[in-house]
Amino acid sequence: MHWVPSCSPEVATPGDWEGTEPPAGRVTGLQSSWFGSWFPCRAGDNDRWGVPQSSVAQRNTNMASIEENFPRGGTQKKPSEGKAPRRPIEQDNLFDTQYEEGSQKRKRIQEDQGKGKKLKEEKKEAIKANAKDFELLTVEALSEGMLLLGCVKESNDFELVISLPNGLTGFVQVTHICDAYSKMLNEQVATEELLEDLNSLSDLYPPGMLVRCTVTSMGKTMDGHQSVKLSINPKDVNKALNTTALRSGMLLSGLVSSVEDHGYLIDIGVSGAKAFLPRQKSQSYIKLANKGAELKIGQYLNCLIEEVKNNGRILRLSITRSEVAAAIATEEQNWALSNLLPGLVVKAQVQKVTANGISLSFLSSFTGIVDFMHLDPKKVGSYSESQTVKACILSVHPTSKAVRLTLRQVFLQPGTGLGQLASSRIGMVVEESVVKSFHANTGVIFELDDGTLAFARLKHLSDTKKSFKPGAFKVGSKHRCRIIDYSLMDELALLSLKHQIIAAPFLRYQDICPGRVVEGKVLALKPFGMQVKVTDHIRGLVPHLHLADVLLKQPEKKYSVGGEVKCRVLISNPEEKKLILTLKKTLVMSKFPVLTSYEAAKPGLITHGFIVCAREFGCIVKFYNDVKGLVPKNELSSEPIPSPEKVFYKGQVVKVIVLKCEPEQEKLLLSFNLISRTVSGAEGEQIPKKSRQVAYETGQMVDVKVLKKKDNGLEVSILSDNVSAHLPTMHLSDHVVNCKLLYHWLQEGDILRRVMCLSDKGGHITLCRKPAMISAVQEEQVVRSFSEIQPGMQLAGYVRNIMSYGVFVEFPFGLAGLAPKADMSDKFVTDTKDHFVVGQTVVANVTSMDEEKQRILLCLKLSEVSSEDPAAESLSFLSQCFEEMKEIRDTMRRRNHSKVAQNLCGLMPGQKLDLVVQEVRWDGSAFFNGSCVAGLTVTATRYHVGDKSLVAGQKARVLVLHVDALKSVVHVSLREELLNPKAKRLMENSQHPAVVQHVAEEFAIASLVETGQLTAIPVASHFNDTFRFDSEKLKVGQTVSVTLKTVLTGDHGVLLAVQGPAKKRAFIRSRKESETGEEGLAAVKHSLCFGDVVKGTVKSVRPTYVTVAIDDKLMGSIHTSQILDEVPIGSFPTSRLKAGQKVTARVIGGRDVKTYRYLPITHPHFTQSIPELSIRPSDLKEDGGAALSPKGDNPSERLRPYKAGQTVTCFVKKYNAIKMWLEVDITPEVRGRVPQLLLSLNPKVLKHPEKSFKNGQALSATVTGTDASETNLCLSLTGVHSLAEGTVTLGTVMKVTPHVGLTVALPFGKTGKASIFHLSDSYAEQPLKNFSIGKLVRCCVLSNEDNKIEISLRQSRTNPKSKNKVEDPEMTRIEDVREGQLVRGYVRSVRQSGVFCGLSSSVVGRIQFHKVVPFFIPKQSLYEQYMPEGMFLTAKVLSVNNTESHVELSLLPEDTGKPSVLPESLGLPRCDTDKGKEKRVEFKKVKAKQKRRVSEGEQEAKPRKKRARLMDEDDSGIEVFCREEEDEEENKRKSKETKCVEVPRLQVSSGFTWDEGLNALEVPVLNRKEESSDSEEEDDAQSTRKKQTKKEKEQEKQRLEKELSKVEATLMDPSWQPQTADDFDRLVLSNPSSSILWLQYMAFHLQATEMEKARAVAERALKTISFREEQEKLNVWVALLNLENMYGTEETLMKVFERAVQYNEPLKVFQHLADIYASSEKYQQADDLYNTMLKRFRQEKSVWLKYATFLLKRGQVEATHRLLERALKGLPDKEHVDVISKFAQLEFHFGDPKHAKAIFESTLSSYPKRTDIWSIYIDMMIKHGSQKEVRDIFERVIHLSLAAKRMKFFFKRYLDYEKKYGTSETIQAVKVAALEYVESKSSLAES
Question: What was the pLDDT predicted at 1156?
């Protein structure tokens, strides 16, 4: 096969394109076919298309010659039509290549051309002509005025880049958007001020938006490429349209030109026409497509004409997405070739099918072509002649009228956007792309590695034409290629197989990163710099400052145009296509790292930069990507520089080193002083480093290897990835001493396990080995962002910096806070450096935050941060220290160290050595030596030498006290009691006196007095316990009390103990309020036993405990649970006691002073415990009370009595914001936790739980179980202890699944599923819109089976008391569906048998196709298109088959009352259900009927249009149009209302509302305005005539008399309603005391928004209405209150209210105002008003009931219960029963039926013979209770001892109930009971 040139050659030569993509500003022709898998044949293989070869071969010579000369001319008759075309002048058939088979023309061919040779020539010519018809669109084919459908590819500041069909590209200048946008641009330029309403093109035109455009000019760029200028201005695109051509249903492009109050003015470019878009018609578009934002001036819209008025001068538009997407151009819209627009969707018939495309006929007489690139991919190969398809017009040529169309589905729904290829894919090299098909004239279709298809043009298949080999592109062959672009309109990636393009380092601006070295050619030298051509399509600028290392005055001498230069990229801005380069040789050739971001600026980094500013403060140095830093004056040189501006100059290249960088603030500190730093840098280069391939997260655990020691830490390598990292010295341990020790003894090559990544910023990894930090991160006791921090949190951190005013503490994840000097310690702080060191581990308590400045204030006081168990904390502190020391010894022991190190490892505290005295000093201390301590300093102080006299050389036996491995010093003792310890069995937790023998930094070594054994005790009890005065420090020889924690020496050589309470601790921790104990309570030995009654004085009162002084020394404690027997929920029991108050209490237990644990009463140390007391009355009785911890200190035993579901009273301790649970106390020894989801059923409470739950507050909780450790109870404050069916609880949304529902996290670690049918009681179009992940929702458990929980979010389920209207009830069974019912649901699927609609989770209905729309639908695909899955529908139930579970539905408008699902704008024929679906003939008949109806409607509309035009000559017509539309709708509504209600009534008892009440008062009247306008028209017409004759005058007189009589009859008509203020004045004069007329008069003014006139009318009414008509006056007062409430202020409302109270019965006015507040949702004002009423009308029963109703409707059940108690106190006794009954009835209706039932039961137990209460109770239970409950009540009533008459009444009611709800057996039982009652009464009478 030979080279086949492209059928539409490019303008540019192939050389211009080699190696690059097309440049910006240039149109490229995409000579491509669509998919080879769909077109496996080449041109001419028509058998694949099902086209007979004979139809191609047999051609008419005349026809062939016509196609040669006029390839786009001629017309084609449709076979089905027997009449001539409708518009013979505009016949086009421009692309008709279909020839009639078997026609007379073919016979003439055979007669005229009898030879086969000529037939073959004819066939070849026809094929050529056919191929030419279907050529792809090229640049040459474009001309000015051509209309095209395009897609926004890029949005820049001054232009839009538009993707056109077949790979072309055009540009829209910012001045070609629309006139309104250009006007605003000019205004902004003129005023030089930014306009708020002017939005940028990028905001208005997102990529992917389809736009209609027209070619305005064809130009050339600077490099000779063609450039197409486009316009989307409607006056250019729609210039062929005029007002007479506009029709309803047309789809036009328009741009917003003005924003009005009621809508938008749209510029559609038609002269003389004004288009208005009502606001309600834009809401759905704004909500769905515009993300809720208002439409902006210059915004492009697809507008559907809904109504045309005044001969096309006034248009009403719609942009609703569903309507626009369904818009189809029809013949009725009278489209012509002169005004045909791109983007129109038409119905077309296939005329001809070829390998290059198909030709279509549409709109009866037009023809067009579809090239193979724009066929529907899913239907290729299935097209056949005469097939009906939907197509979209792509382009219309202005002169030849050639029409191109597309069949791709994405274009068939106007208003949808096109997708884009991921930007990362463009430029990607695909190693193996598979050939799908080869097209000789265009190119090759490939399949890429991800399965997508792409296209390569012929010229991109080889480097040159000569090297092109078609045989290499067989189907299935694989090639290496590169993606160079993407055509949005064709949805194809474009490829190139050229080697230079594949090997090119970059194709786009996005591929060039700052710091990259590039080569280019000099394009031009300008005063501002040099323009460089990097590639054919990438240009760069070298600023004048960067032409050389020094500033060039004459750059043209150094550089010449066309010369090659080597540059480095300074700044790359792909969005604006800007590239800033530098030619400074030092920068270009630099080998130092390139600094392109602040994150990469790590301290110690050396790099090159250039000075941009030199001032007295220093120099500002700039790097790549606009990164800049400051070199302070003192860092400019090692010698002082007084005037930097004289030494340094702008543009100077300098070498700098980074000192410090803060990336968040973009602050960079640099230095020119490299002398001392370069040496260390050079040494550092010897360390091999691997480039970073992985990022490390905070908290990630790694193993590291020590590479090198540095001044401030260790340089280590992470073993898994061989990545270098830094481990600071102070992060080696929590203990400062051990940090130094580890740093001292660790060597290169040592391995450290389980080190945590603290931060990884900019490639600089910082590690941490502090156990406290690791534990905090792993246990999630950390905060990751500022928003998570809450006051009261305790966080582990480390000291970052120490200042004179406080300490800065940093936490994991980078947050830091300040602990001011006053909050550093409980002791007075003189010098902050005495208390902490940098890097030290601390625990901080958050005290406050400044959200604006992101600052945190902390407290480090021990009293605020110490734990509940200080002894355990001290032991942990000590054990950790010794374990780390052991680890260091083991590390040293494993190494082959020096003899000194080995000796250090071999020594342990408590070890006995035989040494020789080396020296005895004057102070009595001695030094020793020996082989086992060679190289070490062994010393004994004078105290440890004791009374022994030592001389040098003397042998001595010593005991090792402490080994200081850091200083290589061994402390020993020669004291006898230590060398000869006594044997004694020791017990854990036993207390012993001990003598301090040695004091180290972290701990002290003491010896037990009893045995002499060595014991280690901690010096500090907490991380923060770092400072003590000299008097507080431990001293050698001091006696202390210790509590042993270990009884074996183990690996440490000493016992571990903590200081006991016998001697006052150096620091006594303040107890927290939540703990039971007083500060510093000491264990005083006492003789109290359990049950003893003592008297004492309250010393202090805390929220959870009270401290009591029993005598001068002994103190006791009362827990908050031990104060009252019955604790009111919400109260604070300790607040009942005051300091100094005398109390009598009983001892119920004792608490160990050290551990604060409760001791068993049999414990030997019980007499030394702190007594726990109780003052509960039940405990003070004889034999009252129970002992605490009777069976010992076993937590599980204490929790055993509590069972799940049990209700307990607990007391708030604190809210743990990190764990998100509430910690509570149940008793002094039992504690519990309430998880967040079980705190409340109100989501608002969970947002800030600490505000709702106060310390010490009493709460009622339900036990749900115990925690994992079985030390705490798990509780619930919502009453939920299990997720049983019907349980209401809160949950958190975990997942949102479209068309399915939600996955919700529930309490107890469970998850539940909520279907879309259970999200609300009222279905919505987008049911999942308001749900996002993490949202708290209230839900009800529907079922819980096999751990699959189904939940409902319906309010009727989650809050049944609210009694809200349920618009879409639950349908759990098929029986819940009733025939004739209107139901709503969502489309499940469209199948052969119909449309299936989900009505609930378990009920699905079917809609047969003839019940979907009243139209004839030819294909099922149309249903699938307009009824996608999840679409919201309203349907009517036609039938229900319970046995087969079938529900048949209908969507027809006559059944549902809703618009048709498929819009009428589709032009579909209505179908006759009796005759069935008719074919073509019936289809056309129906369309003809529609045309007649439209024409009749237009004729009827003409007079009205004329009148509207005559109303105001200067009026724009839009407001008139809107008013007419409102009047028409209002009149329709009024006529409907009067059919239902004959006499309008004013209901003011429940508040007067203007939006409903006033409409109800209006009645339909004759349109006097229309009559008057008619007469005005005729008068105007008469005045233009000549002088009237006598006969004409007589006729005129009679006409006027008739009109006058008609007006009089109208006024006499009782249904007439006034229309003007004069009409109302006449009416109120005739009936001045009618409040209805006055209120109508007020409403008349309100409709015109004339508030003051409405107020004036009300004041007139109050003065005019007779004082006897109290109710009529009250109606006006209520209306005036309504008016002020809605339109006035609170002040004006109160003034009217005060006046109304003076002139009316006050109670009624109060009640009406309360109703007004409630109806307008001003609940707080209503609540305040009701409280005022209760004070003023305390004796009025109705006020109490009205307030109760108000509270219950708002769901405030508890408040209603309290109100009933108040009502009974305030009302007389005789009213009590009635009020209680009414409250119970209200509870049944709006509140809790169970509580209401309890109220009735309580009342009837007190008044059993109140039959009226029994009757009401029965009524309520019949409505709200079960049948069993109702029968139980009846049974109780009929057994009462009542009068016979009353018993008869109840028996009769019982019988009626059973007849209605019971069975024959229950009816008979009632009769038997009645008979027994009669017999018993008669027997009693006889006796």
Answer: 54
User: What is the rounded CA–CA span in Å between residue 988 and residue 875?
Assistant: 13
Whether 878 and 1017 have beta carbons less than 8 Å apart is answered as: yes
* 178: its two tokens: 């629309």
Closest to 361 (Cα-Cα) out of 400, 388, 383, 335: 388
Q: Give one word for 704, left, alpha or beta, with left for phi > 0 and alpha for psi -120 to 50.
A: beta
**One-letter amino acid of 83:** K
Non-local (6+) Cβ contacts of 1755 within 8 A are 1359, 1361, 1362
* Burial annotation 725-754 (CB, 10 A radius, 16+ → b, else e): bbbbbbbbbbbbbbbbbbbebbeeebebee
The rounded distance, in Å, linking the Cα atoms of 1380 and 331 is 39
How far apart are alpha carbons 472 and 489 in whole angstroms? Answer: 29
Tokens of 1371: 């349908």
d(CA 1285, CA 1876): 43
Give whole-number Cα distances, 254 to 416, 1582, 1738, in Å.
16, 42, 66
212, 217, 211: which is closest to 229 by C-alpha? Answer: 217
Q: Tell me which residue of 1345, 1285, 1296, 1348 sits closest to 1319, measured CA to CA.
A: 1296
Give strand pairing partners of 801: 808
pLDDT digit string, tens, across residues 209-262: 999 999 999 888 776 778 899 999 999 999 989 988 899 999 999 999 999 888
Q: How far is CA 995 from CA 222, 649, 938, 1006, 1225, in A?
A: 97, 73, 22, 5, 40
**Any idea which residue has 């237990």 for tokens?**
1149
* Phi, psi of 67, rounded to the nearest 5 degrees: -65, -30
Q: Which residues pair with 1290 in a beta bridge?
A: 1338
Given the structure tokens 């626009």, which residue do they identify?
A: 324
Tokens of 47: 């058998």
Q: Residue 1408 CA to chain centroid, in angstroms? A: 39
Contacts of 1335 (CB under 8 A, 6+ apart): 1292, 1293
634 class by beta-carbon count within 10 Å (0-12 exposed, 13-18 middle, 19+ buried): exposed
| 1120 φ/ψ angles, rounded to the nearest 5 degrees | -60, -25
Instruction: List C-alpha distances in Å: 176 to 159, 162, 458, 1489.
Output: 9, 13, 35, 43
Q: Is this prediction's pTM over 0.70?
A: no
Q: What does the pLDDT look like over 1701-1753, one tens digit per residue?
A: 888 888 888 888 888 888 888 888 888 888 888 888 888 888 888 888 888 88
Structure tokens at 60: 């008419």
Average pLDDT over residues 1514-1528: 39
Residue type at 276 in one-letter notation: F
Task: Give the sign of the dihedral formed by CA 1669, CA 1671, CA 1675, CA 1678.
Answer: positive
Phi, psi of 1082 (to 5 degrees): -95, 150
Q: Tokens 């809050």, residue?
A: 1359
Comparing 1505 with 1122, the larger pLDDT belongs to 1122
Contacts 24+ apart (CB under 8 A), 1816-1824: 1816/1781, 1816/1785, 1817/1784, 1818/1853, 1820/1784, 1820/1785, 1820/1788, 1820/1796, 1821/1797, 1822/1857, 1823/1788, 1824/1788, 1824/1793, 1824/1796
Distance CA 1681, CA 129 (A): 83
Tracing tokens 């009463």 back to the chain, one arrives at 1161
For 303, other C-beta atoms within 10 Å of its C-beta total: 24
Name the amino acid, one letter, at 689: K
Q: Could you read off the pLDDT of 860-918 as tens digits, one per residue? A: 888 888 776 677 777 877 888 888 888 877 777 777 567 777 777 878 888 888 889 98
DSSP letter at 314 equals: E
Q: Are strands 564-573 and 517-526 parallel, antiparallel or unpaired?
A: antiparallel
Residue 514, classified by CB atoms within 10 Å of its CB into exposed (0-12), middle (13-18) or buried (19+), is buried
